[in-house]
User: What shape does this take?
Amino acid sequence: MKPQSLFDKLWARHVVVEETAETPAVLYIDLHLIHEVTSPQAFAALKERGLKVRRPDKTLGTLDHSTPTKKADAEGRLPYASREAEEQVAALIRNCEEHGVDLLGLGDPRRGIVHVIGPELGITQPGKTIVCGDSHTSTHGAFGALAFGIGTTEVGHVLATQCLLQRKPKSMRVTFVGIPPAGAGAKDMALAMIGEIGADGGQGYAIEFAGEAVEALSMEGRMTLCNMSIEAGARVGMVAPDETTFAWLDGRDFSPKGDAWDRAVEDWKNLATEEGAPFDREVEIEISALAPMITYGVSPDASAPVDALAPAPAGDVERSAADYMRFEAGRPFADAKVDRVFIGSCTNSRLEDLRAAAAVMRGRKVMRGVVALIVPGSEAVKRAAEAEGLDRVFIDAGAEWREPGCSMCIAMNGDAGAPGDLVVSTSNRNFIGRQGKDVRTVLASPATAAASAIEGKIADPRPYLEGAADVA
Amino acid sequence: MSREPFRKLTSRTLVLSQENIDTDQIIPARFLTTTTREGLGKAAFYDWRYDANGRPKNSSIFNGYNRETHKILVAGSNFGCGSSREHAPWALFDFGFRVVISSDIADIFKSNALKNGLLPVTVDEATHRKLLASPGIAATVDLEEESVTIEGLGEARFKVEPFARRCLIDGVDPLGHLLNQIAAIEAYERARA
Assistant: This one.
């Protein structure tokens, strides 16, 4: 038999009906995650046709996008951004009740950002097909799952049939060459990769990330990397499951137990890409000298080392981006005054991310005038962080410690920057207005964001590393 | 569920030449708290059309734009990148657009548009350049023929995934096709159980 890639194996396992010239394949979906923003119209479409959710047992709901990250008031009322936001949350609660779908709702200790809780619960597993009406569903590919974002019409298709009509995408392997120096990690690898292949470089492809540095990444790091695949245009990003994956999943709520666990691991071990498996495109990214990365434009592919000088814009597109971002060509990025720092989102809100930020902020103060928001990715992350005292580190530094949710990544729950603000953000998109009207977003790792909060300007986190000379 | 079918359209173009127009530009996230799909045209390109006080921007290309005569949106490459929100094609359709032409259209947006009567057309670079340079030009987009004829500038071919093309021409939701596969889906589930 011809050698197969991880992607080929997962695709083949889930084909219910093969594709033909006239029709796409019918692809089976093992896990459908839903949230309040992209599901109400899908449930309405089911109702219109008199259909039920076919497999509520393979569907799991959570609330994350529209939910406030501030606590309820004395009367127990949550500070929703609008009546519509509150109604959207109520709609998902109603729809899940009506269709018998489990919802990790407000007050549930398992609630959180959809791409944080799936892995955390162990319901995200190697070999599964996972979809969600959210482009960052690629995150789950970190576990060797075939996971991708879909639109609301397709959410309806999966609710009704547990399947999707799909053409098989092309395959790309991105191999990271070398091991990044201290201070640079998964987020920096992702930003370097997007900078290299471009915001549309992965369009039409499923990406597999490979190389020594990927194997060395923690599951959190792999999730950060796969999460950002879509910012290179690829709906799918994946990493072969290995001992790191199995160790992470062992003992979680939904992970198989006992003999079933042993059988599952045996199966998962066979998923990795075989020697000589073909890819439609191969890309190598050299990272032996990788520096902490930031973005300076309005597309995630405008990335540069944090200690670089702002480039002179070439062409109309770059000029208008430079006008918006207001970095002066030839000046260090570090000259730019920061108004806000956001540490959170499905890209970087896990315990490891919060530890990295806390390591920088411990015993230091957020620069006067800077608003720093720390938003854990889930209730479980929040509890774990508090058990380690990370909340105190942030609060003592003068940052705000919030309730879990998407928050300022998409800025639809009321958490947003003010017009003109420069925000250093651990999220995934620096689009114009993404974090509030006329807000300027600089994407960075948790350590870089934390260092920027301390210095009040875009800052290199490396001087704050353990063992580095004291910067104060 | 029936949709408005698309076969052939002759209309004028609105040109947004920027590259990487993401779905946050097409419809900002603060409009996503809706629970219906209707009426989103008012939010289409909202921050491009209105200032912080909700007043129309003088500089907006949408000023004086006629929705009846300009139903073809021509955009820079990588149109529709970013968030998977289907609100983007809903908003564009409700605003009046029926065709989006670019050299390169993001995967999820393309898939969403096809399911909502909004035809995404990917043309070669040379044709794309001609269209970008000729705002307001009349063009005929023929889905049966998979051709776009630009007034005075010739014809270009494009490809649309055959099944989506058929659904669009017939004005049907592909869900019907999936529902016809239930027996095969059940057999798959039994075999894996």
Observations:
- Residues 174 and 180 of chain B are 10 Å apart (CA to CA).
- The two ends of chain B are 32 Å apart (CA to CA).
